[in-house]
Model the fold of this input.
Amino acid sequence: MEVHLNNILLQFKQIPAFTDNYLWVLIQHQQAWVVDPGDADPIIEFFEQQHLSLKGILITHHHQDHIGGVIKLQDWSRRNGQKDFKTLGPLHSQISMIDQVLQHGDEVELYPDVRVRVIAVPGHTLSHIAYFLPIGPYNPIPRLYCGDTLFAAGCGRLFEGSPEQMYQSLGHFKELPDETLVCCAHEYTLSNLKFACFLEPHNGDLLEWTQQAQQLRALHQPTVPTSIGLEKKVNPFMRCDLASLMKSAQQYSDPTISTPIEVLAAIRKMKDSFA
Ligand SMILES: [Zn+2]
Done:
């Protein structure tokens, strides 16, 4: 993705980290917000190349691959004379380095006339939040920074929350505009698609996207961001209320399954051990 720093429109950068993480950066007037800097080094390298300064950090949840680089990035920024950046995130004992705790419904002004809305999405962890950036004067396409809650064709493991909580959290995402870009934190797409195809072998949209995703990965290209509209067509965890998923959950897990939440619980458990 090319970054034109002189353009007043927001610019976006997706930075790979570790083996399969993506770190997300938003830029305007050479001032950058970073979402979930699990590793500071690739961010600092990008900032140095592009002469960026840190405007702030947005955290989705407390796992190390999402917060591990926060302190180093803060220290680097202070050493470079930047002192007025902010670090925002959910309430959690392991997130001690933040200036402001965010809750469902909060709005954060990233730049003048650029605001993100906070959505509480318990499931992967209990205090997980997501950030929705709507269309605005400086942003032509809505974006969702969803951490480890929603992935391309999958969802996060339920480490702390219940299937019911994850169902409701994904329900918030289903209400977003279809064109919303899903900026998730991992490249898990091919593994997720394999499982999705197992559950819905006759879903044409799913088969088509699987082919495209395989081609992208063969060329070492990212498959994310995807869109909410695509996820509603192919992601089994966004489709738990459909007869095709109910039937698969009954067939492969428990014939007495009768509600969408039970479908989600069953397929999430299956995915945990799906090879
Ligand atoms: Zn996580």
Residues 1-6 have pLDDT under 50 and may be disordered.
